[in-house]
Amino acid sequence: xxxxxxxxxxxxxxxxxxxxxxxxxxxxxxxxxxxxxxxxxxxxxxxxxxxxxxxxxxxxxxxxxxxxxxxxxxxxxxxxxxxxxxxxxxxxxxxxxxxxxxxxxxxxxxxxxxxxxxxxxxxxxxxxxxxxxxxxxxxxxxxxxxxxxxxxxxxxxxxxxxxxxxxxxxxxxxxxxxxxxxxxxxxxxxxxxxxxxxxxxxxxxxxxxxxxxxxxxxxxxxxxxxxxxxxxxxxxxxxxxx
Length: 242
Fold this sequence. Notes:
Blueprint: E1 2-7, E2 27-28, E3 31-32, H1 35-43, E4 48-54, H2 59-65, E5 75-81, H3 87-92, H4 95-98, E6 103-107, E7 110-112, H5 116-127, E8 132-138, E9 146-150, E10 156-161, E11 170-178, H6 182-187, H7 199-208, E12 212-216, E13 221-223, H8 227-241
Parallel strand pairs: 1-4, 1-6, 4-5, 8-12
Antiparallel strand pairs: 2-3, 6-11, 7-13, 8-11, 9-10, 9-11
């Protein structure tokens, strides 16, 4: 399985910190933010990763990560996203890297207590890499995320990006497993009202053809895209590892 870490965008919600560096290079406890998603993939057995970045500080990733060998990676590739076109637009840059293989995509500001939930889902998907698989977590502020609605039997019904009135508290976390059709799906997308190609639309199209599965992670999880969540991530990591 190949890994894709998405570290694009301008990080405007974290100004003025992100005026001088990329959001994903800010510290979480004793490590740069991007270390955590890379380590999650490595613990899941991924040894080749494409890192998609952008903005004015993209070169800092090369200074920090080099060729990835210090992490135990076989290969670390880089791609550059122009502007802020959304997660699905950034994902399109991984098409040639994937070369028809299934991929595990993780957002560079997502931090997990444990890779065990991801590893289990990845192993099952690797055995039958068809469709898409997402991971969800029950949260108190689902309006900040893509939200998965399920029926009384637990079957997925819909995914809505940042809904004003969420129909569940199941946030779709920033880790996704896709087969090789994902890039064709991305090519069909139209920009949302936010002017971005939404990853929730990708997942919804898989859901429409009954090729979306999900699993709920048991450990803690957080993003780190706002000052509040950045502090939360630091506190969680510090309490767990330090």
